[in-house]
Amino acid sequence: DAYANEPTRHKALIINGHKPFCAEPPSSMLVESFITPVDLFYVRNHLPVPEIDLKDYTLELAIEGEIKKTLDFEAIKKYDKHTITAAVMCGGNRRSEMSKVKKLKGINWNVGAVGNATWSGARLCDVLRDLGINEDAFNHIQFEGYDLDPSGAPYGASIPIAKAMDPRADVILAYEMNGKSLSRDHGFPIRVIVPGVVGARNVKWLNKICVSKQESQSQWQQGDYKGFSPSTNWDNVDFSKSPAIQEMPVISAICDPQDSDVVEIKNGKIQVKGYAWSGGGRKIIRVDVTNDKGKTWYTADLVEDLQAKQGRYWSWSLWRVELPVEKNINEIEIWAKAVDSAYNVQPESFANIYNIRGLLCNAYQKVKIQLKQ
Ligand code: MTE
Ligand code: MO
Fold first, then answer.
1. Domain termination site, one of 173, 207, 241
2. Which ipTM value was assigned to this complex?
3. Whose CA is nearest to atom 13 of ligand 1?
4. Which residues of 151-182 are buried (b: 16+ CB within 10 A; e: fewer)?
5. What would the pLDDT profile of 159-195 be if each residue is shown by its tens digit?
6. I need a surface site. Which of 92, 167, 227, 236 has the fewest CB within 10 A?
7. Same-domain pairing of 176 and 78
């Protein structure tokens, strides 16, 4: 059994898949802290967790498949240490809401396939600069993990070379998460953090970096993690016609209360909490919340990364708002929508963004709750 040696996990995690292991924290715990504790950070594995001994660890650097250099762990640590705070979000986060529109394929994530952490490591641009490549002669930087499928093929993904080479894009080869060595589930000893980009490109257990004219040819870059029209189905889908997801769109979620919770009214108000995030370093500038289907919108208070620089807002924002509720009403529906620094707004309904893989699930969240007078 390739899964015989998996790490132990926090008991509070809600398990969406055992082999490979996929799990998310309960939504109310998710918004308790701006920095997500490592053991409550969602886990999305596609394959068994590899067992890596630090003294045997190597990272290969290749150009068009030809290995140019091999770094051990110490060699990576010699590079300047760079620390960022960044959210990582699965492309399928909130899929369970989209699946109510129509059947789709994918893990049934609630709102918890996201976490916010500090990551420290070497900048990818520093490591690549030492390879002495001509940036204009290539297009993509491919990554491979140590985790292998039954045929021996590794997990793989790629990002555009411009993102990889830009020092302000903050792409790092991370060896620390929240100030400690990476845990096995989150990529020990080294993973790539590509802030502002879909989780799938943040390759864990990094084994190889390849500079190439081409994107990664892996299943996860070519035949998955792509968006389609709501009318595309499994009979007419052509994966070669859609670009691989990189930067994520603006999204928010209501985490506390959750659908069908019973909530106590205090001084005529209820408290609502959640998170909001956008890809590409775009800051969340506002979160609007309504409890009368959009007749009245209340602006939430934000907790945000005050150190982040413009265009490099990789962290999520937490938000909270007190909503006034009328007397003698037993049930209300709460909606939330976020606005990012490019004034991108979330779409209202899932019906018009439905796609067969259940990705990019960023419609307004709508939760119905019961009120206790
Ligand atoms: N890297 C490897 N090597 N293997 C994987 O299965 N899953 C990807 C990405 N990197 C994956 C990987 C996906 S789809 C996501 S959403 C994130 O890792 C999840 O990161 P986490 O488990 O640390 O939260
Ligand atoms: Mo993912």
1. 241
2. 1.00
3. 200
4. eeebbbbbbbbebbbeeebbbbbbbbbbeeeb
5. 999 999 999 999 999 999 999 999 999 999 999 999 9
6. 236
7. yes
